[in-house]
């Protein structure tokens, strides 16, 4: 882009504008650092999206509503719907920020948290599909927080109870630095592991494919499974019942609004005690109905391990654990 058309912008100006537009948290990551340290997979880099406008990755966060966080059931459709509306609002904020940046002379690109690359789909609906950027890692690079035991982003203000998007551009402004001290206590806390309805959380890791059954309970995997069941049923009455079933209804509603597809289980986010907001949630969330003795034994075993490879692989984004 010819510099004569560009108005000088500071990081402070960009963050202020993003918050005016509706973001609750904003940080700016160095695109080069993210290319060198993609965090997720080797294919989740700004350079894989654009050759021109990825020098800066502006990460925006919007908090979940406290009322839905206080609902304990992981599969409550009110939670799904309210989260979908929050995401829609954040996407609109991202779009308005793009137009504002472009008015200042900086072409920009939205990277939504629901967009996956169709070229990486190999015909297996059970396989975990990655987003184009790893948003938790990008948020850490943007100084918004650190990763937790299950590799979710944790922020000082709202714990993990945020939705993320990103806007990429090549504005020449200061970038934020990652936090160096972990916000998560790891197995010493372990509330995310105890609360997980799918029991998919390990020692600084997560079984993402198993998690997808809960994060997107009416997603593509469930749609293909249900359609296959219908096609494989020889009995006309049974086929008709499947077509008219609650599963079909839930899938239809989710296609209509995205609830249960782009939003789903966030039980591990709700119960995390980190965040200034948790004081207003604790009376509804302190007790964890999903906790078991077996899960606690696993956490006790994790405590005896020094620093497993799973931690070391993510140490840049987890930070140094407090003793």
List the helices and strands and how they pair.
Blueprint (H helix, E strand, L loop, with lengths): L10 H10 L4 E6 H6 L19 E8 L2 H4 L7 H27 L4 E4 L23 H7 L4 E2 L5 E2 L7 E8 L21 H5 L12 H8 L4 H12 L4 H8 L2 H12 L9 H5 L10 H4 L7 H12 L4 H5 L1 H4 L5
Antiparallel strand pairs: 1-2, 2-6, 3-6, 4-5
Helix pairs in contact: 8-9
Q: TL;DR of this structure?
A:
The chain is an alpha+beta fold and 323 residues long. The chain has 15 helices and six strands.
Which terms summarize this structure?
323 residues; alpha+beta; NADH Oxidase; 2 domains; 4-stranded antiparallel β-sheet; two-stranded antiparallel sheet; 15 helices; 6 strands
Describe the model.
The model has no long low-confidence stretch (mean pLDDT 94). The relative contact order is 0.17. It is built from 15 helices and six strands. The longest helix has 27 residues. Helix 8 runs antiparallel to helix 9. It starts with 10 loop residues before the first helix and ends in a 5-residue tail after the last helix. It is globular and about 70 Å long. A hairpin with a 5-residue loop joins strand 4 and strand 5. The strands form two sheets. It has a four-stranded antiparallel β-sheet with strand order 1-2-6-3, with helices on both faces. It has a two-stranded antiparallel sheet with strand order 4-5. It is of the alpha+beta class and 323 residues long. The chain folds into two domains: 194 residues, NADH Oxidase (3-Layer(aba) Sandwich), CATH 3.40.109; 39 residues.
